Amino acid sequence: MGRMFRYLHPSTRIIGIEKEEKAYKVAKALFPDAKIIRDDLINHILPFKSVDVSLINPPFSMRLEKRDSGLCNARWGARGPGSSVESHIAELEIAIRASDYFVAVVLPTTFFTNETTRTFEKWVKENAIEVLRIDLPADAHAGAFWATTLLIYDTRTNHRYAIREPYHWKVNKLDELNDLIPEWQNTEYYQKYMRGFLEDTASYPKPDVVLKPSTAIELPKVTTPKIPLTDNSTIRICLNPSNTCLHLKTHDLLTSLKVLEYKDLLGKRY
């Protein structure tokens, strides 16, 4: 990500969220004036059109869980509806919704051939227009061997039909980008819609986005419920010296439901 940031204009105001401790310390050292916090991205859905540009390199296929995440592409998870989403899907959705002009993102090349992401890819096309795609070599990132693709999306609704097909290149070495960038800058789309970008943002600067680390959520203490038993309803506790758990057996449906409720309330303690 630092290699992407080095091309930014000196007046650029940078905000960022980093969860991994070492990466967070490196980012703070490299960009001391940037507003970078250590937290999980899913805790920070930025306001709509609150930034000009998003530069993101999300981790791939990590499962994020948060109750009522507020993300359009989250699915049913362990914490209920809209609580489970893959990391790269969450980050790209947040970036597209928050960016007023462009999103630059590095994604796995398999993203475009994976049947499980078809619905999300449709959502992306409805909310942004792909203007540039560059397939990178598998060894582009140090310490990894994974085919990735660099994309630029235009998130301005008034330019939705400015380009029919994205410019698509494939490079075998990163050095080839030095030749592609001037070629890209000479395209009609770049000259018409991207050249005056800095002037526009300088004339109409956005207010600062304030990021604060989320506070830890305290889980309620587990209380042991009392199960009222009537008539001949009983619970048999079968103890086995070789087992580390209890097997609760019941003789009727009502007692079974009460036992199930009891186990659910105990949670991990059971």
TrEMBL record:
Name assigned to this protein: DNA methylase adenine-specific domain-containing protein
